[in-house]
Amino acid sequence: MRSPGQLKLIHLATLSACALMAGAAMADAQNPVAPEPEAADQAAAKADEGSNILTPVVVTGSRIAQRGFTQPTPTTRLNASDLEKQAHPNIFQSIVELPALQGSTGRATFTNSTSSGLQGLSSLSMRGLAPIRTLTLLDGQRVVPANVTGVTDISQFPQILIQQVDVVTGGAGASYGSDAVGGVVNFITDKRFKGFKANIEGGQTNYGDDETGALQMAWGRSFMDDRAHITVSAEVVREKGVPSPRFGGIGANGRTWFNNPAWQQRPTSQTTDGKPQLFDIRNAQQFQYSKYGLITQGPLQGTAFGKDGVPYQFQYGSNGVPNGTGGVTGCITPFCVGGDLSGTIGGGTTMGMDLKRQVLYSRASYELDDDTEVYFTVNLAKTDARNTPNPGSPKLDNLTIQCENPYVPASIKQACVDKGITSFKFGTAYGNQPKDIEVNPVREQKRFVIGANGKFSGLGTTWSYDSYLEHGENHIDLKVSNIMLNPRFNQAIDAIKLPDGSIVCRNPVARSSGCLPLNILGDVVQDAGALAYVFPAVGPRQLSTQRQTVASFNVNGQPFSNWAGPVAVALGAEARKEGYWVTGDPYGNGVYPATPNTAEYPADPLLNTSVGNNWFAGNYHAAVGAYNVEEGFVEMNAPLFKSDRMGDANLNVAVRRTQYSTAGGITSWKAGSTWKTGVDGLRLRYVMSRDVRAPNLSELFAAPVVINQAVNYLGNTYNVQQRTIGNVNLRPELADNKSIGLVLANPKWAPGLSLSFDYYDIKLKDVISTFGAQQQVDLCAAGNQEFCAAMDLVSPVKYVQLQAFNLAKMRNKGYDLEGLYRFSLAGIGMPGKVTLRGLGTRTKSFLVTSGIIGTIPAERAGVNLGDTPKWKAQFSQTWEGEVVSLSFAQRYISKGVYSNEFIECQTNCPVSTAQHQTIDNNQMKGATYFDLSGSYKINKNITAYFKIDNVTDVTPPNAPGTNTGYGVNPSLFDVLGRVYRIGARLNY
After folding, report:
1. Helix, strand, coil share of the chain (percent; to 5)
2. Strands, E assignment, 459-502
């Protein structure tokens, strides 16, 4: 028994270590000492306590379920208590805050997008390798994708029943199959839940928006002497998002940090003057349009239109003066600084989507005997998201208005005569568009699983097995409203006056098909009939279905022993079929229905009926594709030695052979070892693996899109069809993954303390990537026959096929640190228990080689415009009493740069090049967020709680190069601000 003084010393020493670790991370130290225990230790410890073979030990990084097995693959675990402390209405947000999770998508990403199909999709990404390279499982089983890229939607999971989440931060492809290049995230449900529990929660931001309401319930009961069990859960969650503030240089609902950041970029040829090529500016003014219209070229350049169409002189920023040819003296195309910012559209992008999720889940099981359980699960889920990509419908200097147009003010008509012109170039944000574009993806999942698990005897030992048959479908209905048809808009704004004084569309074909003239010169009343013609009641629409069918069988056993103990073996087989079909509306797709004069999409002679692309945005195209996968694996864990002096060590190896109907056969493997040394609590681990990612459905069978393009080949210019299609000849991506680490777990001299350090190195080759038409032509000219085969510059119909190719490379290396210390305060005469936890990821290098001629490898580590900062860390300090608990947490993103290839300078700059552009400021801030939460047990069944995220309301740093609309990076930083949540948990 230690004295109170000894306990105090231990506590103070550990607190000092955690403080040093946090300080080291925040100072960008090169060798910090950080945090967290390995989940496998905890799983093994619980397993040793004894549990029924029908509920096997979960070791996500491996298929081995041997008692006491410690896997070599680093794994972080969040249990139900950890998730409750986070108090997020969607536990997806709790997972993405982990340092190793980088590049995930959620409510705040892709909000400026109309056509991506990723809006409102909650998918996980490890180490900035993209969600397509992180395998996400539910109870160790695959889940039907919610997108053509093959990624799952965490919002469709039964979250109130999640018992733990295992995050494997290393390759696990040999154990679980394709896509586990970056790692595996396994959501594990409580399969034997009994009783009733519920969670009720509400919240909003400090700005009075993103109101949130959540109601989650679960019920479970056993029957027939505990042999039959049923569990049912239901949840409805609404996060209302942040509405668009529309035009002007303002943030939503008083978020004063929005300042419209951008880069001004000079031509490379001008950088011989010693000044930088790029200038990092704020309050950027796009001078190719104004809110209600601006003449952008010619002798009348700089004339804007305001209330009732009255012309006035536009106020350019930077004291700019129009030069008559489209440029502005004192500005750098297309931006000035300051001036009239009323037409700014960046702040009008949805900052956080309106997302509603509804999930119904049930699991029923029955033990046929002591050795066999059969079960059936049903998961029905629906997510409904909404976002506004931008206010209005900006037209950047690409419209032509005839001077004779009857809507042109008399003073401008006279000016046309005086200047000898008959038309002028025009740009507008179209600020009087009545309603902003709304994108509304609705995803409905139906997933059914029937399975069995148990044990049997054979070869002189007892084997455990699990098997399942899964079929899932995700139906995605993506609708866009309040959006214009470009050909109709162009005809409607080209108006003339007939001899009888009536104003009509100039084109007689347009008039005969319903065209009514539209006045866009100034803040004027819009004709309802003209709006109905330009903005049809039914907008772009994409219907798609993802289908997945999986049959899997796995067994575990210890068939023999060697000199050091029993050898465990796991083997299994799996067959899977993935398929999808997508249809686009005829105006976007370009193929009209069999009966074109339908009420929704009537035939129109103005529209392109062959290639489509008639909408302002959201031109969806049809596609279909499927592939089959058959695979088998074997994994073995063999003890190497076991002694009191040397400790014990094991060898863990696995190999998987996979046959794809499209990409052919591929082998993945892993080999690793753990050594529990003779030093108290110290263990070393090492694992190397070959992991694969097969091309997904969208890469193989992409919907075809055709547009016209000009390319230069060997000095000659060719006008070609740019045909975007899939590539069925793609090969799997191959990753060599290595990890080495050490773990200090629960030493006798500091019970409750765990620390770990793991170095990782991921080399990915044959990375599937896409290129532009000119890039493909250049690669062909350089001798790459794969690209030459995708183009034809000889035939009468010349084309370049834009396909994905296996040409790029990636290498990501760094280290993870985790730490945990739990202790009771009873030894120092205080109530309760304290838990200190810290996690950190240091990305040393993330090198991406595109394969494009004329480019150099790009270093992404520390680029805060992307997904991989140098440091991402998370710390928490929790005190738990019998009735009250309090938790204080910190989330840290280190400062970084815009690009590691930029050269920062203000004077005496070198000549800028395509590989190394010069810039006046290449620094991008980081952020530290503070969160506070607590709970109070009203009685044994009811617990009230609160949570405040981002207590100090930290402003997101400017991100001028991200194209997110509102000029910040939502994949890395908090954009919503301070958030308050309160709720109650019921447990009976």
Report:
1. 10, 45, 40
2. 461-481, 495-497
Find out whether 939 and 912 touch, Cβ atoms under 8 Å. Answer: no
End-to-end CA distance of the chain: 38
Other beta carbons within 10 Å of 163: 16
**pLDDT score for 747:** 94
In three state form, how does the secondary structure of 178-226 look?
Answer: CCCCCEEEEEEECCCCCEEEEEEEEEEECCCCCCEEEEEEEEEEEECCC
Within 577-713, residue ranges assigned H as helices are 586-589, 697-700
Q: What is the mean pLDDT of each run of 10 residues along the chain (988 residues)?
A: 40 36 35 36 37 48 74 91 93 95 94 87 95 95 94 96 92 85 94 96 96 97 95 97 88 89 92 95 94 96 96 96 93 94 90 95 96 97 95 90 96 96 96 94 98 92 95 96 96 96 95 95 95 95 96 94 93 96 91 64 89 91 94 95 90 95 93 94 95 93 84 86 89 95 94 95 94 88 88 90 91 96 91 95 96 89 96 97 96 97 96 94 97 96 97 95 80 95 96
Give the pLDDT score at 852.
84
For the record, the structure tokens of 948 come out as 């405040």
What CA–CA distance (Å, rounded) separates 317 from 341? Answer: 9
Evaluate whether 854 touches 914 at the Cβ level (below 8 Å): yes
The tokens describing 663, both together, are 């990409």
**Alpha-carbon distance 471 to 549, whole Å?**
4
Q: Which long-range contacts (CB under 8 A, 24 or more apart) does 212-220 make?
A: 212/89, 212/237, 212/238, 212/239, 212/240, 212/981, 213/237, 213/238, 214/89, 214/238, 214/983, 216/159, 216/160, 217/160, 218/160, 218/161, 218/193, 219/195, 220/190, 220/192, 220/193, 220/194, 220/195
- φ, ψ of residue 419 to 5 degrees: the values are -90, -5
CA neighbours within 13 Å on the CB side: how many for 500? 2
Alpha helices in 403-503 (DSSP H): 410-419, 486-492
> CA separation (Å) from 718 to 634, 774, 782, 793?
54, 11, 18, 7
CA nearest 35: which of 837, 739, 814? 837
Q: How far apart are CA 947 and CA 89, in angstroms?
A: 11
Is the separation of the CB atoms in 979 and 900 below 8 Å?
Answer: no
Check if the beta carbon of residue 494 is closer than 8 Å to that of residue 422.
no
How many whole angstroms separate alpha carbon 311 and alpha carbon 302? 10
Select from 58, 83, 14, 127 the least CA-distant residue to 842.
127
Write out the H or E segment, with its range, that includes residue 174: helix 173-176
Residue type, 167: V
Q: What does the DSSP 8-state code read for residue 531? A: H
Q: What kind and span of H or E run contains 80?
A: helix 80-86
* 8 Å CB contact between 722 and 759: no
d(CA 63, CA 323) in angstroms, rounded, equals: 70
Q: Maximum Cα–Cα distance for the chain, whole Å?
A: 106
Angle (CA) 706 582 550, round 5°? 135
Question: From CA 400, how far away is CA 607, in angstroms rounded?
Answer: 19
CA angle 383, 210, 200 (to 5 degrees): 70
Residue in 771, 778, 786 with CA at minimum distance from that of residue 729: 786
Q: Which are the contacts of 297, defined by CB distance < 8 A and separation ≥ 6?
A: 324, 325, 326, 397, 424, 425
* The pairing of beta strand 799-802 with beta strand 716-724: parallel
The gap from C-alpha 48 to its chain's centroid, in whole angstroms, comes to: 38
Place of tokens 């290396």: 813
Q: What is the DSSP-derived secondary structure letter of residue 164?
A: E
Residue 207: how many other CB atoms lie within 10 Å: 18
Cβ-based burial of 605 (10 A; exposed 0-12, middle 13-18, buried ≥19): exposed
532, 725, 796, 802 from 707: Cα distances, Å: 27, 12, 16, 11
Task: Check residue 460 and give its pLDDT.
Answer: 85
Here the tokens at position 721 are: 């069809």
Cα distance between residue 865 and residue 862, in whole Å: 9
Report yes or no: 638 and 567 within 8 Å, Cβ to Cβ.
yes
